[in-house]
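idk why but the lab printer keeps eating my pages so im just putting this in chat instead. protein + NAP:
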Amino acid sequence: MKNKLVFITGGSSGIGLAIAKSFAKKGNDIVIFARTVSTLESAVDEIKKDASYFSVTKSRVNYYSVDTSNFNDTKTVFEKAISEIGIPDILINCVGIAQPNYFENITPEMFDKTIKTNLYATWNACSILIPYMKQKGGHVVNTSSIAGFLGVFGYTDYCMSKFGIIGFSEALRQEVSQFNIKVSVLCPPDTDTPGLHEENKTKPKETKAISGNAKLQHPDFIAKAVLKGMQQNKLLIIPSVDGKITFWLKRFFPGLVDWFISRSIRKAQREI
Ligand SMILES: NC(=O)c1ccc[n+]([C@@H]2O[C@H](COP(=O)([O-])OP(=O)(O)OC[C@H]3O[C@@H](n4cnc5c(N)ncnc54)[C@H](OP(=O)(O)O)[C@@H]3O)[C@@H](O)[C@H]2O)c1
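predcted complex ->
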């Protein structure tokens, strides 16, 4: 994980920013992509400052502003980045949004935004960059969630998108391994990011009641798990112990998990 060129979509905030810092600290070159220029600029400063604190001065950090849910714009910007900086060795797809709400409150516009931000953005980045990455091999990490293998109250549209990310990544991994491209999927638990703070504003009370006891993780903890999971070429990178237990319980005792969650929801609804 040294002297690589790393492209990170959604690298200006939260988990993406923490991953960018982790790679920069190890002496890799970083390019972050997001929409808001001011946030991108301050993220670049933060990544550079962090790397120089660890005495890494040769890491180059650049940014491009783009809405990765739009295929044509993403293609133009990624091709510009490739011609100016180079073909990435590593692609981390971290763009994502959650707008939790009761199913009946989710409008077609909200659904469209969730699917475009979570699914299209990942598809667009992979479909534009993989033909280039085939030339030298590499590693792609797409971001799903615990809600990518466990249905979560208030997250119908989000779960639809994050379950999709896992299926997409598993299929893609099989197709591109012949080109020496690895594919992993990150499934973070609740992590203390600007995205989660925004999400908490509309979370139904039932969701808060059933997920209230889960430990909130720091983005640096997630970033560390990503680098370790990539080194081990894991398909699923599930950083937290809670997340791993949930995954195995869901796989081997789905009825028990369903019963426990339904009971927690009913209890929360009685108390509300
Ligand atoms: N935080 C959690 O608890 C948690 C848990 C599980 C999974 N996840 C997943 O982890 C990923 C990162 O989450 P986070 O909490 O770190 O989010 P965050 O703090 O909100 O950061 C999201 C990043 O994506 C960028 N972005 C959003 N929409 C974009 C678009 N259309 N085009 C380009 N860039 C876009 C944002 O910048 P601009 O707004 O400037 O574009 C920002 O850089 C997401 O996929 C999320 O679903 C998070």
